[in-house]
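Thread: Newbie trying to understand structure tokens

Hi all, I'm a second-year student working on a class project, and my supervisor (Dr. K.) asked me to get a predicted structure for one chain before our next meeting. I've only ever worked with sequences, so writing a 3D structure as a token string is new to me. If someone could post the tokens and maybe explain what I'm looking at, I'd be very grateful. Here's the chain:
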Amino acid sequence: MPYELRDLAPALEYAGRHPEAGFALLRSLQSGLRPGLAAIVDDPERVTAVMLVHRPDRQKRDPLPTHIQLDAETAGAALRLLAWVPPGAEVRLTTYRPWLHELALGVLEGARTVQHVLCVADAQRFRPDPGTDLAVEIGADQVAQAGHDGAVGPEEGDRLFGVVREGRLLACAALGPPENGYAPVRCLFPASPEGRQGCGAAALSAAVQAALQAGHRALCRLPASELPLLHLAARVGLSPVCREWSAEGLVRR
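---
Reply by user tm_fold:
Sure, no problem. This is what the structure looks like when written as tokens:
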């Protein structure tokens, strides 16, 4: 029988036993119980499955689907927790094991899937790119004016680091607001010939360096299919710590 926790200790203990999922689960659990989060386990005395349910803000004009993080030791334990989710609900179900992702696909109708790799750099692992000093802090207007196809826009609170050559912005990386000791970094531009010559590494290196100088670890979440970005991350010392699979769709009735 699914059990909603009032004390997160059993879920934290489970995350500590399962490093393949523990990093992502701990990141969510470290902020404690809060409005919009439900922590569900199969048995609080001996947890073999954890489900974290992040309810969206329904006051927003276009609310996101309910986000569910799920990890379990067995398929039976996972299915018992998923029975807690109402049929027909629109959810984004994130798991951390290939077999659990396959199970999730069987629970959802018309699921859209994506796989990400979470990478972390600390002061010991960071390998600054030789061209780091080429990247300077820039404004969001410069990113918008660059007009790169496939570029990702900055988010509120981002610091932006770009490589500018002859008035043209060649590469840009963002450093987001820190949370629980980690500051997110993102590459805003897709791979380009100039980026492969070192501009992308310089921008990303500058963002990671700024995170470390502020006393945080750098966290980068990259699509598993983007091999150039994964190589770029490895080049500056961002090491994989967790792989996640996300499937978005309607829970089967």
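A couple of things are worth pointing out once you decode it. The chain has two domains: 3-117+244-251, 126-237. The domain at 126-237 is CATH 3.40.630.30 (Aminopeptidase). Feel free to ask follow-ups in this thread.
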